[in-house]
Amino acid sequence: MTKYWKSLDGNSIQNKKEKVEKKSSTNRRDFLKTFGFGLASTFILSRCENAAHKAIPYLIKPEEVTPSIANYYTSSFFDGDKFNSILVKVLDGRPIKIEGNDLSSISLGATNSITQASILSLYDDTRYRKPKVNGEDSDWGTIDKQIIDQLKKAKEEKGKIAIVSPTIISPSTKKVIADFIKEYPTTEHITYNAISVSGLLDANKESFGKRIIPNYKFDKAKIIVGINADFLGTWLSPVEYTKQYVQNRQVSEDNREMSLHIQVESGMSLTGSNADERIIINPSEEQNLVANLYNYIANKVGEEEITASKPTMKITELGNDLLKNKGKSLVVCGTNNKETQLIVNGINQLLENYGKTISFNQALLTKQADDLEMADFIKNIDSYKGIIFYDCNPVYDYPAKEKLTNAIKNIELSISFSAIPDETSEIVKYVCPAHNYLEAWNDFNPKEGIYTLSQPCIHPIFDTRREQESFLKWAGIEQEYYQIIKQNWKSAVYSKTNLAFDFENFWIKSLQDGIIELESNSSEPKYKNDLSAIKITEPKSELELHIYESVHIGSGKHANNPWLQELPDPVSKVTWDNYAAISPFLSKEKSLKTGDVIIISGTMEIPVLVQPGQAKNTISIALGYGRTVAGKSGKDVGTDVYQLIKTDGYKEYSTDITIEKTKVFKELATTQLHDSMEGRDIVRETTLDKYKEKPSAGNERHKEIEKHHNTLYQEYVYEGHHWGMAVDLNACTGCNSCVAACSIENNVPIVGKEEVKRAHEMHWMRIDRYYAGDPENPEVIRQPVMCQHCGNAPCENVCPVGATNHSAEGINQMAYNRCIGTRYCNNNCPYKVRRFNWFDYNKSDALEGNLYDPHGMTKDLPRMVLNPDVTVRAKGVIEKCSFCVQRIQEKKLKAKMENRALQDGEILTACQQTCPANAIVFGDLNDKNSKVSKLFEQQRRYHLLEELHTLPTVGYLTKVRNKKGKKSNNKDHQKHA
Amino acid sequence: MSDISTREELIQGNKDLKTITDDVFNPIVAKPNKFWFAGLLLAASAALIGVISIVLTVWKGIGIWGVNKTIGWGWGITNFVWWVGIGHAGTFISAILLLFRQKWRTSINRSAEAMTIFAVICAGLFPLIHMGRLLLGFFILPYPNTRDVWVNFNSPLLWDVFAITTYLLVSLVFWYVGLIPDLGTVRDRMKTKFKKAFYRLLSFGWTGSAKHWQRFEIVSFTLAGLAAPLVLSVHTIVSFDFATSVIPGWHTTIFPPYFVAGAIFSGFAMVLTLMIVARKTMNLQDYITINHIELMNKIIILTGSIVGIAYLTELFIAWYSGVEYELFAFVNRATGPYWWAYWIMMTCNVVSPQLFWFKKLRRSIWFTFLMSIVINVGMWFERFVIIVTSLHRDYLPSSWEMYKPTIIEVLIFVGTLGIFFTLFLLFVRFFPVIAMAEVKTTIKNK
Amino acid sequence: MKLISGYFNKEASLLEAVKSLRANNIKIKDVFSPYPVHGLDQAMGLRRSWLPRAAFIGGAFGAISGFLFQAWVFTRAYPIKIGGKPFLATPSFIPVTFEFAVLFAAFSIVFAYLLKSNLGVGANNKIYDERATDDRFVVVLDTSNVDEQEAEKIKSKFEETGAEGIKYEE
Amino acid sequence: MKSNIESIMENYNITFQFSKKIKTILAVFIVIGVASLAYGIFAYSPTKVWSALLLNSVNFLTIGLGATFFVAVHIITQSGWHVSVQRIPEAISMSLPFGAIFMIIMLFGLNNVFHWIHEVHHDPLIMKKEAYLNVPFFITRLFIYLAVWILFTYVLRNLSKKSDLNDGLKYYNKSRTYAALFIVFFAITIVTFAWDWLMSIEAHWFSTLFGWYVLAGVIVKSFAVIIIIVAILRKLGYLEFITKENIHDLARYLFSFAIFWMYLWFSQFMLIWYANLPEETLYFIKRVDNYGFLFYLNLILNFLIPFLVLIVRKFRRILWIVTSIALVVFAGQWLDHYLMIFPGTMLDVQKIGIFDIGLTIGFIGILLWTVLQSLTKAKLLPKNHPYLQESFHYENL
Fold first, then answer.
1. Which residues of chain A have a CB within 8 Å of the CB of B136?
2. From the candidates D204, D276, D287, which should be mutated to test the interface with A, based on the most A CB atoms within 10 A?
3. Would you call A787 an interface residue with chain B, using a CB distance cutoff of 8 Å?
4. How far is D201 from chain A (nearest CA, A)?
5. Interchain contact D281–A (C-beta under 8 A)
6. Sign of CA dihedral D243, D246, D248, D251
7. Do A839 and B149 touch (CB under 8 A)?
8. What is the count of structural domains for chain A?
9. Which of A73-77, B17-21, C89-93 has the lowest mean pLDDT?
10. Which of A115, A120, D60, D308 could cross-link to A111 by cystine, CB 3.0-4.6 Å?
11. Is B320 close to D195, i.e. CB distance below 8 A?
């Protein structure tokens, strides 16, 4: 999967997994050498114009660079919210793709959509080119001088200075900040998390004496109860949790066990839509439910109960299920309410989960901020002489916007390190733009005992400077940050390992692996808690608002990333917008339909989306939208709901609201209009009980259809390779990371909101989502659909020019140059996976002046992200999934040059590589031992619309629901054979 | 030729050879009236708007149409099939009716054939402009090239290229062969020098020699024999565009004959529309008599009923097949979001032609004119229903979409109407609209 | 060349004249009429035209070459796997084969007809009488090699059968 | 041509005389048929025997039906060319009641040929079709078809016969209404009849074109049979008034409809071949794989031979050539029915043997008997037909 490297100092450095060897750069000289190649290209880059016209050949080729062959560098992605260990694919000096680092125990090679898309922020055209003073371009010399003067002045006057940042998990950065504070002792470091878990942290502090997030082990749990915690989509470390979660969800003929997942929630989340059972509550019922659950369990195990009013719903079954799995269960709650979290801790304690499914070893460190600290800071903000905003944008993502804005305007020294203009950087005095993370060194400590590095993969494109360098400069420390990291590692990490015989080797290895994981086996802390003091909030009957984090936009930091904006929401399939999700019940009651604009609590207008499975009296709205200062893709997209978060005490992500109907209609850009499977045999599913009895359960039709597979002409026999793909519907959570990865890998154009509305989106793969059963609490089922590479492809037959045809390896291929765009193939495709270039999206048309590029993707800078191994498609041609044929060719060629057979698993398609759920497996069907062949032997395997005899080479494995002996109520999509 | 007393004279007004020539010749030399100029202006303007819209489409991209990821073909191909369908009547009249010795065709075949050619020209435009890369449209021709790639002979769209081209060329030749003697007549009667030279050029040196006539007849008859299966093949192949696919509502074996019947149905409706106007404005009531109209109406009942039976057959087999997708496709047509299009189609094509069972209505000019419009509307909707409702909800509900045309698509359609009428108006002005020589053979007074 | 032509305004008289001339073994050069007169070819003793054969040959050539071309492209020139169909996808070739056949047949017969009849763009055949394309029937005889007596006989035959007029031409 | 008209005048009153000799020959035919049937019952499974009976009954019935259709179509199109042979299809149409009897006899063997009858209760796909495919409805439909067809056939025949005695035009105009009504009813019922008795043999399979395809076969067959009867009568010294043009016309229609049949065959086959959907291909796979020779022979007999021979104008005007082709097409249509029925009803691959041919000879005997018998009932030329003259006054180019 990655570039094979000869290590730089000639020592053969072996990896744990031999086949994965990663690039490291040894020292400063090597570092410079590494980037020497980049000088020419980045020089051109920064000048933007004439970019492609002045490619200069190497005089002396750097040894690690072969034109058109990609190098992979390890790095880390952390946006102040979520962490991911990554590999950066650098081709001819340009980072063009991010893959997960499979040495990381956190993500095991997977990434989420935000990480995938983050590569584009490197080439964000709105980035600050230079430091700015009062909005005017400046230079570092001037700006440093002014800032140092002011800092000194503040120091003399004992004026308070604040560094505001999200949780910082970089040990070296922390050290730099500490050094800075040493120099300016009046400085305070205030952290806040836009999406806060303060309640959880403080509850843990109270229960265990440790203010950290424990290490949840979803793979160890037989029963998982998620309470408003979208742990597969957004909560804390979703990639990690997904990886764990699917381990107990992927059944096979040899392992017919799977966990039971019950989700208690208000809005339909990605996690909830994957649950075996969903219990719908209004946010105000949450505490009551948790307390009653606690009481039920406490009662059974003979512990003391707490005072709570009667539960609003039946919890007996839930309680019994949990009790049956003592020590093998896991209850997680996403609330920021400390009391609730205390009770949840109590439940987990009663269930003896600590030390088993929850551990304080390798605790998660990505969120540590304290809401009260920030609230306090805001209260006293006027007493500060200076504020430094480090990697944060509180003017947007902290509810007290007005106060902050006024304060910043009045403060003498306000600094933002933001690399791109945002609401905060727009009003500060000094903008000291930081590097993009792909341009800078850094280290991270995302979990206790886990250290990772990020290394620059490209010379800084603009005149920017990493934040740490700024701090060092202002503190008067003449040391490079890189050296600080190295020193820090030597003392803090190297000393605790015995991985290499000297530090340099250790350092090389660290860079090569990108991650160092230390053994840690400190004992679990003791639980001590008194819940009796907690007063349980009574459920309310008014309309409530539930504010949640969306899977792709997150806190809103990446709102200017068109790739993320165009990714459909995993549940609603809406792009480019947030919306007020209302229940079908409310829709009827208030006669609102999707697209009707309502006014929330008299302050904000937002269109409605009727969301099956939504709590009846709750409206859910996603954060991260409504940015007012951002590039074109982020600005004024959707509505900002940060202001509705209450901040007295812990941030409250739910609140009472009123709504008011307007006459305005605002069409949402949705990629899927129809939610029902119409009783069709599209996604086959069964229940675990039935599966245990018979692995072909739910898939009886497969055999039946195979029996009738007759043909008027011989099926083609593929000698050599026959590529195929297996998609495990039981594993797929629908997170859309694959869609993001596919689009990035294959240069899929961005079409923008208006075009999505017109059903012109271009994604090569999509995740179909269907609802079944009761609209108030439906079952959700998903299916990733890409080109099925049919053996009897209906599309190929009808292309008049033969532009789409079949390769000798079973791939349905497109010759873009040949295509004349009749769209006949698309009409004839039963899966509708073909996409047509409606306009000239990438300046490749023969005619002039007809560019359609609403989000500036063809500007010189964003264009740098294009994958040169994949043709950009001209206006008027059809495109579609190619099974990442460029990757197949690359690996085939490599195997050939190394004179060996291609290994199974060597070729990974972009979607497969990024999938956190291991749902996609690609390989050679002719190799009987390949993983994909083994999966094809599973009795769960079927093909989409196989009765049409299109002979797809994409196979699906049936979905298995863990429904406990209940009669299946989804007759709607259970086909009788 | 002995008298066959039981048959009525085909044309009225007790014409002799001379008066027939006069009647056909005079409009060519007479100064056209205001209506003609107004019509031409209107049609040409519409054509211009159409051309502008086409240029815009080619320049900007198909994205300015309403088609989308699910419905790849919308108005464009609907119009294509509609125009091709209309383009069937002329050749049907001149070829098949010639083979069946239906002499009444002589009054209308000339203009019907002209209409055919113009309609096919309009039709041929659509497959071209609906291409995403029109400028590379020549890829569709099998010409030797350095890349050694040919075309895909499996593709019905490619068959279309051959079928439409062949049909256009053969119809043109057939039409022109029939025109030559009449152009000779025009030439010989023309007084002004320039015009005479013009028609001399067009008339290919026709003299009226017995040998020429003998060959003329045999060539006409052979061409009719060739054109008859050709006319069937064209709409058959157009139907293959749909029927070869696997899309429910498209893939059904009855399509070939049913499309042909539908084509003739709509073609006759268009012939009626034009003839009813032409006979009135050009004083051709004696040639295009109420009997002609009645006979055409009978063909309309016949073909309309065939179409109706085909609809019902499709419906029944959709149920009988037991294939849920098939059944759904038809239920969706009738009750889905495009139900209105389906019921317009049903009303116009199946129900309303049945009114022609009443002789009184069959012989009413006004009613016939109204019906001819209704049928053309209905047949347009038939194609719309087939294309759009089948595509918009096919196999995977996740991809279900709606289709709405944009103004550009509408204007292109209007543009082709403009092109059609422009050509037709020019035709009636410069060419003999009635096949004089053939009509002369049918009269008894010679 | 000396020509004599008789003018008729009735189809019946024309046929009668032609028959009577033929009965008297007088060779008719040509007959001109505004429309194809039924039975005139038998009356004049014209042989059935061979033109349909041109159509047949053209059509057969079109069909065979059309089919072979497609087969060659798909099996020899550049075989491409399309939709799992066999390379020699005979049913797929039928439509184009048919169109080739019709196209070639139609053009063969039309070109043969135009060539044989000396018709075409710029053809300037002699027009004996302009009303022959309107309402007149003209019988033309070549009297170059005919004696006076014979010419008289012709004239009388014309008159007998009701000729409207008789014209002499050098 | 005068001689022709004169002879017509002479023949105005001639009717056919059914001689003993012919009767004997036909009796031999029938005996062969009965013997074959007896042999078949003895030697083969009931399914095979019933299948053969179904084949011949349907073949027999559709010959008569095609003749009525021929008569009706020519009435409503006000054709003239056919008048000289009109009495022949009329006579053929009189075989319809016998065909009806055979069909009713078939009702006793339904179980043997229609597998849906027993599978309708457990095959899920066929269960869906039960509203249509159930025995009572099936039988009801048959009786409706037969009753209406026979009714119209007799009405048209009687009107035609009456015209001999009286004013031709009056009866002719009257018959136009009935002919139109018959055509409407026929157009629908021939399709449903084809579904019932042929398509439902393989109840899983369906094709929308199937009914029309069968109809095309019926039309071709009706022309073939008319030509054969004309040839027989000519041989026996009748119909000397039939001109070359009449023969040419019959041949032309045989030719055209052979092409039309091929067109529909191709349309149906190609579309199924192209889409290659298992639910549709199963029909053809059985036939191509197991009956490959007959499958292609079907095309040769029904299309290739008539096409290649009759494309030559000269051959279209020679009665014996036309008759030979008619016989080929007749055999071809029989084979077409064979291919519709046997691969569906019989599990193992069948060969056409003495039994099949013998039985068919028997049916042909009965057919000819009824036809010739009816020819004695009316004059060979409908002398008062309004377009009689036209039939003798046209030419084929």
1. 820
2. D276
3. no
4. 18
5. yes
6. negative
7. no
8. 4
9. B17-21
10. A115
11. yes
Cβ under 8 Å to D: A residues 934-953:
947-949
Fold for the domain defined by C3-48+132-169 = Alpha-Beta Plaits (3.30.70)
Any idea which of A314-318, A945-949, C91-95 has the lowest mean pLDDT?
A314-318
Q: Does A827 contact chain B (CB < 8 Å)? A: yes
Please check whether residues A114 and A248 belong to one and the same domain: no
| DSSP tag of A23 | B
Is residue A652 located within the same domain as residue A764? no
Reduce the DSSP state of residue A89 to 3 states and report it.
strand
Domain residue extents for chain C: 3-48+132-169, 51-116
| pLDDT category of residue D7 using cuts at 50, 70 and 90 | low
Do A929 and A967 belong to one domain? yes
Q: Does A795 touch chain C (CB under 8 A)?
A: yes
Window 245-304 of D, Cβ < 8 Å to C: 266, 269-270, 273-274, 276
Check CB contact under 8 Å for B229 and C39: no
pLDDT at A7: 34
> What is the distance between the alpha carbons of residues D260 and D216, in angstroms, rounded to a whole number?
7
Q: A371-379 and A198-208 are packed helices; what angle lies between their axes, rounded to 10 degrees?
A: 120
Q: Are residues A615 and A718 in the same domain?
A: no
| pTM (2 d.p.) | 0.91
Q: Are residues A569 and A512 in the same domain?
A: no
Residues of D in contact with B6 (CB under 8 A): 169, 386-387
pLDDT number for residue A489: 87
Q: Is residue A570 part of a domain?
A: yes
Q: How confident is the model at residue A965 (pLDDT cuts 50, 70, 90)?
A: low
Residues A719 and A839 in one domain: yes
Residues of chain D contacting C38 with CB distance shorter than 8 Å: 395
pLDDT band at A26 (very low <50, low <70, confident <90, very high): very low
- Domain end, chosen from A608, A634, A669, is at A669
Cα D17 to Cα D379: distance, rounded to the nearest angstrom: 11
Interchain CB contact of A792 with C (< 8 Å): yes
Mutate to test the interface with A, among D270, D281, D287 (most CBs of A within 10 A): D281
CATH number of A848's domain: 3.30.70.20
Domain match, A577 and A664 both = yes
B17-141+151-442 homologous superfamily: Formate dehydrogenase/DMSO reductase domain (1.20.1630.10)
Give chain C positions within 8 Å (CB) of A796: 81-83
Same domain, A224 and A87: no
Domain boundary among A482, A517, A552: A517
- pLDDT at position B415 is 95
Within a domain: residue A529? Answer: no
> The CATH number of the domain where A602 resides is what?
2.40.40.20
Length of chain D (residues)? 397
Domain residues for the domain of A601 are 544-669
**Mean pLDDT for the stretch of residues A67-77:** 88
